[in-house]
UniProtKB/TrEMBL annotation:
<protein>
    <recommendedName>
        <fullName>sulfate adenylyltransferase</fullName>
        <ecNumber>2.7.7.4</ecNumber>
    </recommendedName>
</protein>
<keyword id="KW-0547">Nucleotide-binding</keyword>
<keyword id="KW-0808">Transferase</keyword>
<dbReference type="GO" id="GO:0004781">
    <property type="term" value="F:sulfate adenylyltransferase (ATP) activity"/>
</dbReference>
<dbReference type="InterPro" id="IPR002650">
    <property type="entry name" value="Sulphate_adenylyltransferase"/>
</dbReference>
<comment type="pathway">
    <text>Sulfur metabolism; hydrogen sulfide biosynthesis; sulfite from sulfate: step 1/3.</text>
</comment>
<dbReference type="InterPro" id="IPR015947">
    <property type="entry name" value="PUA-like_sf"/>
</dbReference>
<feature type="domain" description="ATP-sulfurylase PUA-like">
    <location>
        <begin position="3"/>
        <end position="122"/>
    </location>
</feature>
<dbReference type="InterPro" id="IPR014729">
    <property type="entry name" value="Rossmann-like_a/b/a_fold"/>
</dbReference>
<dbReference type="Pfam" id="PF14306">
    <property type="entry name" value="PUA_2"/>
</dbReference>
<keyword id="KW-0067">ATP-binding</keyword>
<dbReference type="GO" id="GO:0005524">
    <property type="term" value="F:ATP binding"/>
</dbReference>
<dbReference type="InterPro" id="IPR024951">
    <property type="entry name" value="Sulfurylase_cat_dom"/>
</dbReference>
<feature type="domain" description="Sulphate adenylyltransferase catalytic">
    <location>
        <begin position="133"/>
        <end position="342"/>
    </location>
</feature>
<keyword id="KW-0548">Nucleotidyltransferase</keyword>
<comment type="similarity">
    <text>Belongs to the sulfate adenylyltransferase family.</text>
</comment>
<dbReference type="GO" id="GO:0000103">
    <property type="term" value="P:sulfate assimilation"/>
</dbReference>
Length: 373
């Protein structure tokens, strides 16, 4: 709830001005559009148990205070209190009601009431190191991009440490979009054991620029607080809209964008954009990058003629390299990237670059809401 309040208040989720009501939720689930016709693919809702609402006496027309970490965060002008068939909602948004899907599980775990209404931030969050170097509001970032004369900006969505395929993806999209810069938008948020720690994600991406693999004036890493829904093509549209709010003119989409398991096709995210010509941001659709020993380097699926000998730059391979701690082959993972991962493991991950129970319980939070004076 807290990160969504912050994202709404600062305009990351524009045109939303608060938590969605029943008409918008139904319209989004059915047609990926708000009631006013604007494209929006994922419900943004505030769930509260009915018993809790009754205990607190919350009614439509009230203004209530939302808190985080025990401190005031925002006020909510309650415009509607409603319920929804959660199984039906999950089926329409995710294309499945299988509780093994993390987005479906999130939906099925919602409380039995939703509270809708506009929010007003009453206390600005403090973004803690190292994320304070990378987090900017949409207004701040748009201003900084304008100062840098970035007129054509291509966004790269990531929740991973970058391997060679990611690097080639960014460089290829940069050239295809004839962009002035690549904006890496790293998702930091809800974690499960085995994920990369957030600190490693942002710092390794920024290190590509620090090492000169991207020039200083064409590459920038930012952080977005968002708990992934793994909604496949719908989430791809959501990512595009958020990055448009950040000032991006283009967004790159590769294989299995925002997917999980076998719920969506490898390029389902590519197909959905042909149905939505009114997004206000252009999609850069790319195929897979892999290592080809015959070609002698990283190759592009749309060019390489050796699919039988390719070596996928899969997450399992990269994780095994990182876990092994040996110098990787440059066609898979840069040694400089591995060094940053190892430093992050010691400084932030309690010895591991991957999320552990200790990391989840003892890490410094991404943001803190200060106590009122």
């Amino acid at each position: 709830m807290a990160t969504e309040c912050v994202n709404i208040a600062y305009g990351f989720f524009s045109p939303l001005t608060g938590f969605m009501g029943s008409a918008d939720v139904e319209s989004v689930a059915a047609a990926m559009r708000l009631g006013n016709g604007l494209v929006w693919p994922i419900p943004i809702v505030l769930d509260v148990p009915h018993d809790e609402l009754r205990r607190l006496g919350v009614q439509v027309g009230n203004t209530v205070l939302l808190t985080h970490q025990g401190n005031p965060l925002a006020t909510l002008d309650v415009s509607e209190i409603f319920s929804s068939d959660l199984t039906s909602l999950a089926q329409r948004v995710y294309g499945t009601a299988d509780p093994a899907h993390p987005g479906v599980q999130r939906t099925l775990n919602y409380a039995d009431r939703f509270v809708a209404g506009d929010i007003t931030l009453v206390c600005e969050p403090v973004i803690n190191p190292p994320f304070d170097r990378f987090w900017r509001t949409p207004r701040q970032l748009r201003s900084e991009l304008a100062d840098a004369n970035w007129l054509r900006v291509v966004a790269h969505q990531t929740r991973n440490v970058p391997h060679s395929g990611h690097e080639y993806l960014m460089k290829g999209a940069f050239m295809e979009a004839r962009a002035d810069g690549v904006l890496v938008s790293a998702v930091i948020g809800e974690k499960k054991e085995g994920d990369y720690i957030d600190e490693a994600i942002v710092l390794t991406h920024d290190h590509l620029r620090e090492c000169g693999f991207f020039r200083d004036d064409i590459h920038r890493t930012t952080a977005l607080m968002w708990d992934m829904r793994y909604a496949g093509p719908r989430e791809a549209v959501f990512h595009a809209l958020v990055r448009k709010n950040l000032g991006c003119t283009h967004h790159m989409f590769g294989r299995d964008h925002a997917g999980v398991g076998e719920y969506y096709g490898r390029y389902a995210a590519h197909e959905i954009f042909s149905e939505l010509p009114d997004l206000g941001i252009q999609s850069v659709l790319t195929l897979e990058w892999w290592y080809c020993p015959t070609c002698g380097g990283v190759a592009y699926e749309g060019i390489c003629g050796h699919p039988d000998t390719k070596q996928d730059l899969a997450g399992r391979l990269i994780r095994s390299i990182i876990s092994g701690g040996t110098d990787p082959a440059p066609q898979t993972l840069r040694a400089e990237t591995l060094q940053v991962v190892q430093r992050c493991a010691q400084q932030y991950g309690f010895g591991s670059p991957f999320v552990t129970e200790q990391y989840l319980s003892q890490r410094t939070p991404v943001m803190t809401i200060p106590a009122p004076p």
